[in-house]
């Protein structure tokens, strides 16, 4: 049986370990600690946990002040509110002064599920990508989340860490080394490059299996750092395969697909197809139902690959 | 308080007002009205009340000041320059390309600027974060911040107000530069914040009301704040927009307009 763990669960555990080894770590939440899993830290190290209440803007502002005083704050909320409600606080109080604030947002994308479109942000990566000084990390599984939490704490500067609600397959084992700003090649292939991020990485691997059955060798890249983008890795791969399909649980506008398209258009123009949310809002349903409805499936990636193979 | 010290501070405030006029006039843009109204408070902080060392601007035990109403940057720059955080001649570069003196304070560029501000309503939250860090680290430093009376129309200010009282931040003192005007007109006409003192009291703050141009009252209020335990203090400082320049006083038009050369000359003559 495939092992599944939610990235937010891994985040909660990783924070505790980090907090126990580094006194500078402080954690803030906006009344969602049980959901974002910062509750683990709150229980383990209560003196360095601050629940700011339902006030995301203030949470980000306080985090900025803590960072300006030498702390390493991790501020958590749902991705919708962290990047939406508090956008300008992130922009002006964190990114502009390049303060060492980590915005670790959970419940990103449509797999929030039953809460519906009001809570399903498909814009957050795009919003954060457009802000100078911001680093964006979207872990694919629990192992990568744990390693990413350590890496972003060691990095001095603003980071947006995008995490999810449901349990997702564990892809990596403990020997995996996460490097901020570096893509992870999961499978080599000659025919097409599939670049995925977050929960779509496991779907990309499944798609690659289906494609292999039809004789198509896909190269699968996990782009867990979306900004700064590992341009070298992408260009190296597309120079070999000549085509690229991206997959993300995010709008096709502004996210990974846009970033990859922008890069290859400028440096090595090849056909690009983006699997993602097609400029629409989400709705209520189970995560599984929504992934089907919005075509975030291995089959959708396979279809995109086939279309792009016909293109040239 | 000794008469001599008082006179020194008043002279210093006058010099800071002169620098504000020079800076904004030479820049050709900026916010003289709200910089002049805050000049006495900022002078008292930087030249009497705060523990700070221009030679060591990042000293962990320093008192902090966050200019939440960041558009009053000229008053902060004038104080920092006068205090020796950067060479005085740099005040002539305000708002010019390549200058560290941006239109609104940038902590990445200017030594002594504790927080980048300018987008209203955000400074108090940062000050709350600094005060929390001080408590965590068991440091004795004080955190001061200055808000505009128009600025407190921002909802985030009240989120921060609630948090400061909740966390019992008695190491945090805020000033309200209550000059009565915002860009579009009198604060009471645009969106009346009254009863101001009662609002802060209701949010759990200790409130002191003073004349924000009376040096002795400013200093006495901060002493009260420092001896208040278990809650933050808001010093509601009644001020005059454009204070010190007769033709700017209480004139909303001088919120964000620079004096022309002849106006600069007249203003500087009045402040000599």
What does this structure look like?
The complex is a heterodimer of chains A (312) and B (272). Chain A has 312 residues and is an alpha/beta fold. Chain A has 13 helices and 14 strands. Chain A has a seven-stranded mixed sheet with strand order 3-2-4-5-7-6-12, with helices on both faces. Chain A has a five-stranded mixed sheet with strand order 9-11-10-13-14, sandwiched between helices. In chain A, helix 9 (200-213) links the parallel strand 10 (192-196) and strand 11. Chain A is globular, with a radius of gyration of 19 Å. The termini of chain A are far apart. Chain B contains ten helices and seven strands. Chain B has a five-stranded parallel sheet, sandwiched between helices. In chain B, strands 4-5 form a two-stranded antiparallel ribbon. The radius of gyration of chain B is 17 Å and the shape is globular. The model of chain B has no long low-confidence stretch (mean pLDDT 97). Chain A binds chain B through residues 26, 47-48, 50, 52-53, 55, 57-58, 60-71, 73, 88-89, 92-93, 96-98, and chain B through 60, 66, 106-108, 114-116, 118-119, 122, 124-134, 136-137, 155-156, 159-160, 162-163, 166-167.
């Amino acid at each position: 049986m495939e092992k599944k763990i939610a990235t937010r669960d891994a985040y909660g555990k990783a924070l505790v370990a980090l907090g126990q080894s580094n006194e500078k770590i402080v954690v803030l939440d906006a009344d969602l600690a049980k959901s974002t899993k910062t509750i683990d830290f709150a229980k383990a190290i209560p003196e360095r946990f601050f629940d700011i209440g339902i006030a995301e803007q203030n949470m980000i502002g306080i985090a900025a002040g803590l960072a300006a005083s030498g702390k390493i704050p991790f501020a958590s909320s749902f991705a919708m509110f962290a990047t939406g409600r508090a956008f300008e606080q992130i922009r002006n109080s964190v990114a502009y002064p390049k303060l060492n604030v980590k915005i670790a947002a959970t419940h990103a994308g449509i797999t929030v599920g039953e809460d519906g479109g009001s809570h399903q942000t498909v814009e957050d990566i795009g919003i954060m990508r457009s802000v100078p000084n911001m680093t964006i990390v979207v872990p694919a599984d629990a192992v990568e989340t744990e390693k990413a939490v350590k890496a972003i704490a060691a990095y001095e500067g603003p980071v947006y860490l995008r995490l999810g609600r449901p349990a997702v397959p564990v892809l990596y084992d403990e020997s995996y080394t996460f490097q901020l700003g570096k893509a992870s090649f999961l499978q080599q292939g000659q025919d097409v490059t599939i670049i995925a991020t977050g929960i779509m990485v496991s779907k990309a691997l499944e798609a690659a299996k289906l494609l292999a059955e039809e004789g198509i060798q896909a190269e699968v890249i996990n782009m867990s750092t979306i900004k700064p983008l590992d341009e070298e890795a992408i260009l190296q791969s597309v120079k070999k395969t000549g085509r690229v399909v991206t997959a993300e649980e995010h709008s096709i506008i502004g996210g990974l697909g846009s970033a990859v398209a922008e890069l290859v258009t400028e440096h090595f123009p090849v056909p690009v197809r983006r699997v993602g949310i097609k400029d629409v809002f989400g709705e209520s349903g189970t995560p599984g139902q929504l992934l089907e409805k919005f075509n975030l499936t291995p089959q959708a990636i396979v279809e995109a690959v086939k279309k792009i193979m016909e293109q040239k | 308080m000794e008469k001599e010290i008082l006179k020194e501070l008043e002279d210093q405030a006058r010099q800071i007002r002169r620098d504000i006029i020079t800076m904004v006039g030479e820049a050709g843009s900026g916010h003289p009205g709200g910089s002049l109204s805050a000049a006495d408070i900022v002078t008292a902080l930087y030249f009497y009340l705060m523990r700070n060392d221009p030679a060591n601007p990042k000293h962990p035990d320093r008192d902090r000041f966050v200019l939440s109403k960041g558009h009053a940057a000229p008053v902060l720059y004038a104080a920092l320059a006068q205090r020796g955080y950067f060479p005085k001649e740099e005040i002539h570069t305000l708002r010019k390309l390549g200058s560290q003196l941006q239109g609104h304070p940038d902590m990445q560029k200017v030594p002594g600027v504790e927080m980048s501000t300018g987008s209203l309503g955000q400074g108090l939250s940062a000050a709350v974060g600094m005060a929390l860090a001080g408590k965590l680290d068991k440091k004795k430093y004080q955190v001061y911040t200055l808000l505009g009376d128009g600025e407190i129309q921002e909802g985030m200010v009240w989120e921060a107000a609630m948090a400061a009282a909740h966390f019992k931040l008695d190491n945090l003192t805020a000033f309200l530069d209550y000059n009565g005007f915002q860009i579009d007109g009198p604060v009471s006409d645009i969106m009346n914040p009254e009863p101001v003192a009662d609002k802060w009291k209701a949010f759990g703050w200790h409130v002191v009301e003073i004349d924000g141009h009376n040096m002795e009252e400013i200093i006495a209020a901060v002493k009260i704040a420092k001896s208040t335990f278990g809650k933050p203090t808001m010093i509601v400082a009644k001020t005059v927009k454009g204070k010190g320049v007769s033709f700017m006083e209480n004139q909303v038009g001088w919120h964000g307009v620079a004096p022309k050369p002849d106006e600069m000359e007249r203003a500087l003559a009045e402040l000599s």
